[in-house]
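User: Structure tokens for this complex, please. No commentary.
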Amino acid sequence: MLDLWKRYPQVDKQLNDVNSLIKKLMVSDNSAIQSLLDDCARQQGKMLRPGLFLLFSQLAQNSTAKTDRLIKIAASLEILHQATLIHDDIIDDSPLRRGTITLQAKYGKDTAVYAGDLLFTVFFQLLIETMNGTHYLKINADTMQRLLQGELSQMAARFQQQPVAAYLDNIRGKTAALFRLACLEGAYFGGSDPTTTKLAGEIGENIGMAFQIFDDILDYSSSTGVLKKPVLEDVAQGVYTLPLLLAYQTAPTEFKELLAKKQQITKGEVRQIAHLVKKHHGTEQAKLLAKDYTQKATAKIAQLPVTPVSQKIAQLAQKLLQRTF
Amino acid sequence: MLDLWKRYPQVDKQLNDVNSLIKKLMVSDNSAIQSLLDDCARQQGKMLRPGLFLLFSQLAQNSTAKTDRLIKIAASLEILHQATLIHDDIIDDSPLRRGTITLQAKYGKDTAVYAGDLLFTVFFQLLIETMNGTHYLKINADTMQRLLQGELSQMAARFQQQPVAAYLDNIRGKTAALFRLACLEGAYFGGSDPTTTKLAGEIGENIGMAFQIFDDILDYSSSTGVLKKPVLEDVAQGVYTLPLLLAYQTAPTEFKELLAKKQQITKGEVRQIAHLVKKHHGTEQAKLLAKDYTQKATAKIAQLPVTPVSQKIAQLAQKLLQRTF
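Assistant:
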């Protein structure tokens, strides 16, 4: 993974333990489920949510937090993330979803459904082990609901030119809510005071917003080789993200005919849309918004107690906007 | 619903409150999800799990249990059941699954996935509201895992003549685990002593085993009109239940050619299988096993403190084996 975390040796080391725990928990007697879970494990991502959790857990000086508990909560965040990824993959077959072998295509939809459900159960069990009796159980359940609402809103808006505000609402649920939780829980279970913990949640939300917008920008500006996933996939699936929505606002008539094709759009037409997004500065405008959120995060990070950790958090927030994948 | 519960006026009355609560909780801003949830609500089943929970909650004399809490836990059991039903419905399309409009076919697989996930979240939230800090959270999470493992084993065994013991293991997870939980929680949260509570769980498991076997018998012996769902659907989907497995043991050679067709089996051939199951007394043999489990339940019910409630529980266990749907 995790070049990102190499600069934070303590987090990097703990993330190895998180990974070992996740591998231990992502098991099933069912061979199809196990293969699917192994595939997920191999495609190991950036471990952003557990990494942020662990980094924020260091905010408290002289913390008495037990490492074992922190590792488990960090794992719960990644496992919830993986569960939602697996279920998000079960979309209705789009003719344009060629090129990608989705989990549902490789293993069947039923396997993908149950694999996601299994991870929800593991998530639930980790929470019960680590925070039974605390109000953080409810915060977790409410976050899970927000993730789901974000996904649902995105699904409902497919093939529609939704307003920018609606897009922002969706990603606040779909992505930023879990970043918020990671940072909030990191501060809380690390032993920070209530003011710092509240700030941590707000920082997490703003980092999450910037991260998702940047992710959506990369879908237009990167190449498949660098991004390690097919570019321009969102458009084909009717997910119109910020660069497109902003370019559309500038020149709606140029987009109208292409977007009217909806599910019937061809790969060539998708490339035309990408060209229009570029022509009308959709990605540049989106970058400005991502920077806004990073600045909001940075302003709040400046309110944290000044420690080496808060400096690292500030660096990380900047770094997430410089990545190429 | 619920002719079944008319004989138990207090349970019947409380089930109305459970239903109102479920309707209040099964809501979504997303119109597709809402329609799917409304369909589920309309197809209201027998409310066995919340009904058993409420009946067992009456076992304790002079209980100080708060009705509000009991209604919520009862609702959590039905909602978990509905969530698993919705996800079980997302199987890979079988050519023989005509005639049924499945939720996935009507609303799309993605909608069905998210609707189930939403109900898991509601389930989780109800538990946190009613039993945060107790060890029953873990019991619930473990039960959820057992349900899932039962489903997975059933999926793995599709189109295979599994041993009877493996079938029994599957239904112990898939069905009996939730019946066990309903009765166990009913006794516990109703205020019963530990001995009664433990017995309640065992009674629930045996009732659940008998119930599922009887359900599988009805798939062979009932008609579509009476059962209100297509008969012989399991075979077409490769789910070989007890009547078939027992008949197969008696005369394997007569089945071999037909079962070898697997997914390619025709409706006519499914009827031939049903005929063979009848000829080799598969349903009668299965009924004997169902009666065994009912007798086990009855023997344990006899160990409960003698009250009007324990008599009602004994009646109900018998009644579940006399139903026609």
